[in-house]
Amino acid sequence: MIITIVFYSTKLHNFATGLRIHKVGICNDGKYKLTSARIEAGNVPIGVIRRRSRGVRDTEYFKLKIRQTSLPATYSVFYPKINLT
Fold first, then answer.
1. What is the tens place of the pLDDT at every residue in 59-81?
2. Neighbour tally for 50: CB within 10 Å
3. d(Cα 30, Cα 33) in Å, to the nearest integer?
4. 11, 53, 65, 66: which has the fewest Cβ within 10 Å?
5. Dihedral of CA 8/11/17/19: which sign?
6. What is the pTM of this model?
7. Residues near 50 by Cβ (< 8 Å), separated by ≥ 6?
8. pLDDT range class, residue 5, cuts 50, 70, 90
9. 21-41 confidence digits (pLDDT tens)
10. E strand or H helix at 67, and its extent?
11. Rounded to 10 degrees, what is the CA torsion of 10, 24, 28, 8?
């Protein structure tokens, strides 16, 4: 019985410590409602480009391809009559 209480109290203590450590981030999340979703979504195409460009030594070409993927689409092959801008 005493071992169980000590186990739960250490778990609760660890949880409270984690809350104290991340207090600023938790409060900012509630205040500003910002997430890193856009950054993470931008990392996906960069990872795909990196995998495709194994062995290519031209870093300027790699940077160009990253810039090209970050540009918004202005034309669709499937819907040519719709303006995407």
1. 888 888 888 887 776 767 777 77
2. 13
3. 6
4. 11
5. negative
6. 0.45
7. 62
8. low
9. 999 988 888 888 877 887 788
10. helix 59-70
11. 0
